[in-house]
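Re: zinc ion structure - here you go.
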Amino acid sequence: MFKRTAWILVATVVGLLALSARADYQPRAEKVADNVYAIVGPLGQRSADNDGLNANFGFVVTSTGVILIDSGASLLGAKKIEAAIARVTKQPVRWVVNTGSQDHRWLGNDYFAGKGAEVIAMSRTAATQAEYAAQHMEGMTRFLGKRVQGTKPLPAPKTLAGESATLERGGETLELTYTDTHFPGDAWVWLPKNGVMFSGDLVYVDRLLGVLPWSSVKNGQQAFKALAALKPARIVPGHGRVCDLAQAQRETGNYYDFLADKVGAAAREMEPLSATLDRYADLPAFRHLDNYEGLHRGNMSRAFTQFESQ
Ligand SMILES: [Zn+2]
């Protein structure tokens, strides 16, 4: 009899676990350096389950409030990020810094601004946010369904001029520099005191980076070299786990070098596109990365087009 009850109990627990696995994705903060945290999102696509948080976010806890780096893809996504921060500190989010204009970097801005946070970005980042707002809201509605309700696109109201800018908030220093790679106006956030780099969508690890029609391979190659020159101790990539420079070099820097040097050269020499795509279809250095099958050929094709016209 006891045995049977025990089995029912086990079955119930297993059932509950299965249910919770299907329930909402909840982001978790992990410590990167003193007072610096990363939230590493899933590598797959945006979904109602993950509220579009399929990217990385981060925050710095100061004595007067939290500096959040990137605000999530929706109102509900922003609330999930806020809950993850609340498990680490009682300090409220007083500042939001956006590294880019892709949906999950900024569609949570309005939520935090509504709670009194100052929302900050480089000026071209904010301009691109405004430009892509309607398109990204449309995409998010497709991915998230009714969970997108209440989300209002708010391009960063506080903008920073220049090619790079230093931001002092809560006694912390953040240096923003354009990378202009995945989206025009993308920037990184560098914490010189801790040697932590929030690369935005410049660095991808664990999964292959994506070259979109508006991405720039040439800028990616240059920006990665500039990032490497800073010798960051830790990198919070745009997607994938927190990593060191060596891994970022292998999985992003070397891929940009490949696209620019090999595919770019083929384009400049006016080789047929299909011959180039076939020759480099299988690259052992990168084929272990998630999304390789789905993205590699298209990435090469877009890189080819970019270098053909130069
Ligand atoms: Zn992204």
